[in-house]
Amino acid sequence: MAREADAARVGPGVETVAADGFVDAVDAVVSLGGDGTMLGAMRLLVGRRIPILGVNHGNLGFLVEVRPEGLEAALDRMVAGEYSVEPHSCLDAEAGGRSFTAFNDVVVTASAQLRAAVVDLFVNGAAHGYYRGDAVVACTPIGSTAYNYAAGGPVISPSTPSIALTPVAPMSGISRSVIFGDGDGVELRNPGDGEALRFIVDGASAEPFEPGAALRLRLRPEAVHIVRFDADIHLQRNRVKLSLLDLPLRPDQLIELVPPQLRERAEQLRRQDDSGPADPPDQVVPALRQQKLDPL
């Protein structure tokens, strides 16, 4: 079953229903794409205990676990109940009487290019200072490896229910990341000095943030449930992907991230090199690909 809007993507053999009835009609959802597609599926199911299976047709894929060639086996395991669910939190945002959902982050910037954004911070109704810089990033734990990380913010474990606020290129005011608990109400205000701002939800929709307006943020724990078949393998893959973001790892720690079968193949090639001619390089890489030993 698919939404009517996705009919052309799934083909004629799949039943389609209206978007407003889709969520009530399904027992599980399969997301075919990368993390962006997965975020869209997650927004559909906020507050519902419906498992979401992510199939990675993208690149890094922090949220998705299954490769396309493994989809059939994954569906069989889901039907048999051989899986667990991993809860993920989201940010409930409210501004101007409208509500928004962010699984990665909400970013406040100036509306005009090359202008500084000035933002006041209130926590549980009390003033906590202000920001002045290129932007302010409010992120969830799973969003901490995105813009927050690029801005020098902390990487937060998904098991820690929290909101991180990180200034981007701060000029004055709060200059470091601050982390708040899931019970804290965080409010960012445009101080009303005439400078128009905007906020961007999950890197997609940009909304106006007028002078005197307030953007209220609160973490919603366990907003959605992601299907996991092997949490250890998923964690290892994410460690490899984070190493690509230049996390400080020693060479011996990087070796530990390489799957055992790939290490064994490398050891075989090393022994061949010590005892005699090894496979030509142009034959080794295709051989590894045939064995599906790509760690990513």
Write structural notes for this entry.
By secondary structure, the protein is an alpha+beta fold. The protein is 27% helix and 34% strand. It is built from 9 helices and 17 strands. Strands 3, 4, 5, 6, 8, 9, 12, 14 and 17 form a 9-stranded mixed β-sheet that branches. A hairpin with a 2-residue loop joins strand 8 (117-123) and strand 9. The chain is globular, with a radius of gyration of 23 Å. The two termini are 30 Å apart.
Question: Strands, helices and their partners?
Answer:
Elements: E1 2-3, H1 7-10, E2 16-17, H2 19-25, E3 29-33, H3 35-44, E4 51-56, H4 71-79, E5 84-95, E6 98-102, E7 105-110, E8 117-123, E9 126-133, E10 135-139, H5 147-150, E11 162-168, E12 172-173, E13 178-181, E14 186-189, E15 197-201, E16 205-209, E17 214-228, H6 231-243, H7 251-256, H8 260-275, H9 281-290
Parallel strand pairs: 1-2, 3-4, 4-17
Antiparallel strand pairs: 5-6, 5-17, 7-10, 7-15, 8-9, 8-14, 9-12, 10-11, 11-13, 14-17, 15-16
